[in-house]
Write a structure and sequence with these properties.
The chain contains 9 helices and 11 strands. By secondary structure, it is of the alpha/beta class. It has 2 domains: about 110 residues, Periplasmic binding protein-like II (D-Maltodextrin-Binding Protein, domain 2); about 120 residues, 3-Layer(aba) Sandwich (D-Maltodextrin-Binding Protein, domain 2). It is globular and about 60 Å long.
Length: about 270
């Protein structure tokens, strides 16, 4: 499974970018935002450009917040986001004559991960909350070894962080001792090198260098994410300024088509159907 580990990954296949709302044939469709959605967006972009040789797609990460900011300032055609737009973002957009429209393109589960040699296999949502608040500080408090827990979190521009904050922390603050990382890939690298660390990533990023924990005894899978049984699942979005047209519409329609959703599945995410 192909993974994208660099937040600044760009599929830059054109000599010029367009900052408008809808790309035309021979121009570039610009997509910015969520690092969680990068693998899906990348394979979808590659497949779409093969089907439409006259279309170029520029793709970059930076976080959901940065994607939505780019949509508001007109520097992207599509903003990818692993969370819903915030009321303050929507208000700012409308003040600038931008009307963000969400398009759900996949479902994801946020999975807590540890080093493969860590003996802990399951944590409750309450235990995760206390760990990330810094109130549980040692693995022995949750059935592990007598070792200090190294908390690794996404930064605040991340949609993944905001969903974790809502569903696990319930708006409590992450411990100031947490190591903040800018991407799913950076979380994986950090956890794989530290036996005492814990982090969280999107389901599609799981690999053998880290080990997923179950949450409340429930494994993160396509089935449990779709059913809602897994407690940290969320939809993934592509936002446009108003209803999409032209190439922008064509690309989003491709992502939510049967072929596009098969790509979602192959990348380890949960398809819409």
């Amino acid at each position: 499974m192909k993974k994208v580990l660099n937040v600044l990954l760009a599929c830059l296949v054109s000599l010029s970018l367009v900052g408008g709302h809808t790309a035309l044939a021979g121009e570039t469709l610009v997509i910015k935002g969520s690092t969680t959605l990068l693998p899906v967006a990348q394979v979808a972009a590659e497949a779409y450009m093969k089907l439409h040789p006259g279309i170029n797609i520029s793709l970059s990460g930076g976080g959901s917040g940065n994607g939505i900011k780019a949509l508001i300032d007109g520097s992207t055609d599509i903003a990818t986001a692993s969370r819903s737009i915030k009321p303050k973002e929507e208000k700012l957009a409308q003040e600038k004559g931008v009307y963000p429209v969400p398009h759900r393109v996949a479902i994801d589960a946020i999975v807590p991960v540890v080093h493969p040699k860590n003996p802990v296999t399951d944590l409750s949502t309450e235990q995760l909350s206390l760990i990330y608040q810094g109130k549980i500080k040692n693995w022995k408090e949750v059935g592990g070894e007598d070792l200090k827990i190294v908390v690794v979190s996404r930064d605040t521009s991340s949609g993944t962080y905001e969903v974790w904050e809502e569903k696990i922390l319930h708006k409590a603050k992450v411990t100031p001792r947490a190591q903040l990382q800018a991407s799913n890939g950076a979380i994986i690298q950090t956890i794989s090198r530290n036996k005492y660390a814990i982090g969280y990533i999107g389901l599609g990023y799981l690999n053998k260098s880290v080990r997923a924990l179950t949450v409340n005894g429930i494994e993160a899978t396509v089935t449990t994410a779709l059913s809602g049984a897994y407690p940290v699942a969320r939809p993934l979005f592509m936002y446009t300024n108003g209803q999409p047209k032209g190439t922008t519409s064509g690309f989003i329609n491709f992502v939510v088509s049967e072929d596009g959703q098969e790509l979602v599945r192959k990348e380890g995410y949960v398809p819409l159907f």
